[in-house]
Amino acid sequence: MLAQVETPEVDVQILLPLLIMAVGGLLVLTFTSLTKKLPAWFVTAWSVLAALGSAAAVIPLWDRLGDEGPGGTIANSVAFDGFSLFMTVVIALGVALASLLAHSWLDREELPGVELHVLLLLSGSGGIIMAAANDLIVFFLGLETLSMAVYVLAAMNRRRIQSQEAGMKYFVLGSFSSAFLLYGIALIYGAFGTTNLVKISDEFEQSVLIDDGLLLGGLAMMIVGLAFKVGAVPFHAWTPDVYDGAPTPVVAWMGSGVKAAGFAGLLRIMSTAFGPVVDDWSFPLEIIAAATMLLGSFSAIVQTDVKRMLAYSSISHAGFMLLGVVAATDRGTASTLFYVATYTFLVAGTFGILSAVAGKGDSDFSFEAFSGLGRRRPIIAFALMVFLLAQAGIPATTGFYAKFSVIAAAVDADRYWLAIVAMAAAVIGAFLYLRIIVSMYLVDADDDAPALEMPHWTVGVVVSVAVLVTIGFGIFPGPIDALATDALAVLTAAP
Amino acid sequence: MVESFLAAGGTSVPFPALTSLIVLPLLGAVAIAIVPGARLEAHRLIALLVTTMTGAASVWVLLEFDKSDPGLQFRSETPTTWVESLGITWDLGIDGISLFLVVLTGILFPLAIVGVKPEHSPKSYFAWIVLLEAGVMGVFVTLDLFFFFVFFEVVLVPMYFLIGSWGHGNRVYAATKFFIYTMFGSALMLVGILTIVFFHEDATGITTFNIVTLAEEQAWSVDAGRWIFLAFALAFSVKVPIFPVHTWLPDAHTEAPTAGSVILAGVMLKLGTYGFLRFGLYLFPEAAVWFAPVMMILGTVGIIYGAIAATMQKDLKRLVAYSSVAHLGFIVLGTFAITTEGLTGSVMQMVNHGLSTGALFFLVGWMYERRHTREIAALGGLQKVAPVFAAAFTLVMLSSIGLPGLNGFVGEFLILLGAFVASPWIASIAATGVILAALYLLWAYQRVFHGPTEGDNADMADLTVSEGLVLLPMLVLIVFLGVYPKPMLERIEPAVDALIAHVDLNVEDWSEPTADIIDVTPGLDEHGEDDK
Q: Chain A: nearest CA to B146, how far in angstroms?
């Protein structure tokens, strides 16, 4: 006779954003294998709608959260709180933006097929799982779903050897880091006998650790795994090569959604479950943050290729986002959330333009390709200037308030030296963005420079939305800041 | 659109004059960006219209200003909350210290737009200039440290493009140096701002960026205050600039287009000296008193160094640039004398320097347009062919030297008086700067305007009517403020006295330096011109 297995209750509404995205991806995949080729516009529209639908599903949940307060489902392994909802929206928007960028890219590179969109949706659903995971095993499942899809996405450009190389590199190094993370989880299970984040934090309250070797070992391994995903120094080496080789819309997704998911994991695991041992992990993370900001900025300066330069600058941004994690305060979490949310739009806009400027082949990212852009295509140049100034942290853009709030969080947590390092890195960073702006506006193009075609309207939509968000919320950062602050208040309340 | 915005003040809320000083140029910049590029004159017209309206608003503020009130005026009773979690508010106010800087900004911008036409791409040129005005005005009127930092930083971008795109010679280098230098200077200031905000939060439980609240409550220790003052001082020193962090200035000034130089010297350098007053003395009275001797010495070094360097320049524009270093040294000296005379003189000298150096940059710019050189050796005998030009130059130069009867004298005299009371030695050394100024300017004048008129110099056209009209307001003010400075001084002085009272209240064992030999009361009767 079979033993009676008690299955945990499943609250479908909480899982709805995830289900819409994952099922959306799987459905379109099924359709294409059954019917004839679907038109490209339909696939793009489908995946954008799936992503936006997933974001829209959060709205009633946000109301419900206000009524019921935070909770969990599936035996408390998936969290339902403001934090997961905030991150879900960020990731879903990242998918929508990347899908729009991918549409014209696929067309231009003559790579028909639905795979790119499907993989975007699937990796997005992995990201949502990571953001909501309340259990280390569930978190790992999300991480692998996300990563597997992104490995393939990186190698998506079949005609470019660098793209294959990027996929391979990312896969090998990524698997390595996943192994670290898994081993870390195992050690923590060894220390506590549970992988549930709530139970882990309960353990800290109820029992005194006599020997914390297992815990520290596990923590260290997990930090390695997570730092790799967000591209923090010294686990950043994959970033420039992969960014360089991967299709540009995919890079936009890696910079926005993948990074957001990585930070969701870092924030939730470090701040909630391991909050009680903050003294053990904050110092190493401080060093990592400082090294990431500085090395990212310094290495970016010496690059001769704009895409590689922006790859290094994304490393530097990861360092800034880490400031909020290191602060380990409510303000810190809110500031990182603000940073991640606004950076998503910045990255999508930036790489959207980069892809348009590079033209067919997706490979010419030299400074020459950008020279005289201010005269040749004033609107495109203006948009890119907005994104670059925002990344440099110039006021009246979201980039400024993002940097301001993470540095405020660091100062609030008495990490003065880290705040000073951050400001130094910001100034060094400003220099590199100026270099690109100089080529666009202050260097004239060669006469034989090819005429730059106006990008497809889908790219135009992405860039316009990103410009509006960057300037609009740059001048009025209040609304997103308020949301991020709400999102965190719920995170710290035990689910 | 603009009209409806002005009308929005309506009956319930008083006319948001200070907000309009920032929002008008912002809307103007957007309007310029929207109007298509082919309509050449349209952009100039919008820019002129917007800056004139802003200028008119600033004059309106001047007329409505209550000179008997030493505090901040035109404040909204309920400041708009901007970011709730950090207590950032849109809170503007103006007192006798910022009043004249706002008016100077309001006057100089339309003149800079009328005075010089860009060599290319007028659309973006005018958009950047108008945007710059919004930033500069913002610094002078905001009472919130967050917005202060925002405006302080945001002015870098338009100026970067103005220098880099419409400048001369090594413009990209000069622009980048300017940008990175100034940004690096203010990097530590941001950490300083955040530190005092959180000190205040820890002490009182209230998160606010409001400088009035922060300055009144002084919720930080003496040591912390000194360190944070240093962070602020670095930012302002770069902006002023004070020796030895002045090296960006000669490059930026020389390579900038004429309008850029006028604005840079006229108002942007004042962001630093104004910062010292509002965010140095007012926020950190204890630290300011403690560092005052060092700052006075640095100011004096700047005076002497700037003067000597100016004497040795071969390029006329570079000479004027170095003379700025010397003049701003006087302002720093007067500020850190922390006496009524010194501070009043400093505030007045900020305006004087804006007028005289602004006018000098106009003249040098027009000379360059005609002769395509700024090399002093290549010029000569211009007085014969351009007598009006030479006359205007003479007047402006004499104001810059500080000739009695012109505005420069009143400011420098007050500063030296104030500095003498605080430290006779430093004041005596600084006074030699006045002589040196006469030396380098008169010598330059002699080489450029006197002597035989040879080669291309013989063909130089005289000042045109439109150029004369641009210069006229400045010349009138130079003479008026020299002969009758009372209306200005009586508005500055109450604010300065309030500032000194604030320092007195917050610093133990300190009182305003006085000297028995000079009777400085009552008021400002010691310089004969304003006696009736």
A: 9
Rounded to whole angstroms, the Cα distance separating B482 from B145 reads 35
For residue A3, the 8-state DSSP code is: P
Residue length of chain B = 532
What residues are paired with B92 via a beta bridge? B142
A394 Cβ neighbours under 8 A, 6+ residues apart: A400, A430, B153, B154, B156, B157
Beta bridge partners of B142: B92
Contact, B332 vs B373, CB < 8 A?
A: no
pLDDT digits (tens, 9 = 90+) for A81-115: 888 899 999 999 999 999 999 988 888 877 777 88
Closest CA to A493 of A1, A33, A105, A68: A68
| Mode of pairing for the β-strands spanning A78-80 and B80-83 | unpaired
CA distance A251 to A258: 10
3-class SS at B493?
A: helix
Alpha-carbon gap, residue A334 to A257, rounded angstroms: 18
Is A487 or A388 the better-scoring residue by pLDDT? A388
Map tokens 């912390």 to a residue. B224
Nearest to B189 by CA among B148, B131, B220: B148
**Three-class secondary structure of residue A40 per DSSP:** helix
What chain B residue is nearest to A442 in terms of C-alpha separation? B165
Instruction: Kindly report, residue by residue over B197-255, the tens digit of the pLDDT.
Output: 999 998 888 888 989 889 888 888 889 999 999 999 999 999 888 888 888 888 888 88
Segment A483-488 shows an average pLDDT of 82
- DSSP category for residue A272: I
The span from the CA of B104 to the CA of B153, in Å, is 20
What is the residue type of B318?
Answer: R
Residue with tokens 């969701």: A264
Could you give the CA distance from residue A48 to residue B355 in angstroms, rounded to a whole number? 58
Best A407, A417, A434 residue to mutate vs chain B (most B CBs within 10 Å):
A434
Is the Cβ–Cβ distance between B362 and B392 less than 8 Å?
Answer: no
CA distance A235 to A220: 13
Tokens 């996300």 appear where? Answer: A146
Which residue in B203, B222, B223 sits closest to B213, CA to CA? B203
Residue A463 backbone phi and psi in degrees, to 5: -65, -40
Cβ atoms B437, B400 nearer than 8 A: yes
Q: Is B7 exposed, middle or buried (0-12, 13-18, 19+ CB in 10 A)?
A: exposed
For B150, the closest of A396, A412, A478 (CB atoms) is A396
Rg (CA), chain B: 22
Name which of A331, A412, A437 to mutate to probe chain B: the one with the most chain B Cβ atoms within 10 A of its Cβ.
A412
Task: Give the C-alpha separation, A180 to A201, whole Å.
Answer: 22
Give the predicted TM-score (pTM) of the model: 0.88
Alpha helix (H) ranges present in A303-372?
Answer: 306-327, 330-358, 367-370
Evaluate whether A446 touches A378 at the Cβ level (below 8 Å). no
pLDDT of residue B530: 45
Q: Which residues contact A311 (CB under 8 A, 6 or more apart)?
A: A239, A240, A242, A243, A244, A251
3-state secondary structure A184-243: HHHHHHHHHCCCEHHHHHHHHHHCCCCCCHHHHHHHHHHHHHHHHHHCCCCCCCHHHHHH
Residues of B whose CB is below 8 A from A331: 85
Query: Is the minimum CB–CB distance between B282 and chain A shorter than 8 Å?
Result: no
- % chain A with pLDDT above 70: 95
Q: Using CB atoms and an 8 Å cut-off, which of residues 12-71 of chain B contact chain A?
A: 37
Amino acid at A1: M
Assess contact for B334 and B276: CB atoms under 8 A.
Answer: no
Residue A311: name the closest of A262, A248, A218, A376 by CA.
Answer: A248
Tell me the chain A residues in contact with residue B149 when contact means C-beta distances shorter than 8 Å. Answer: 395
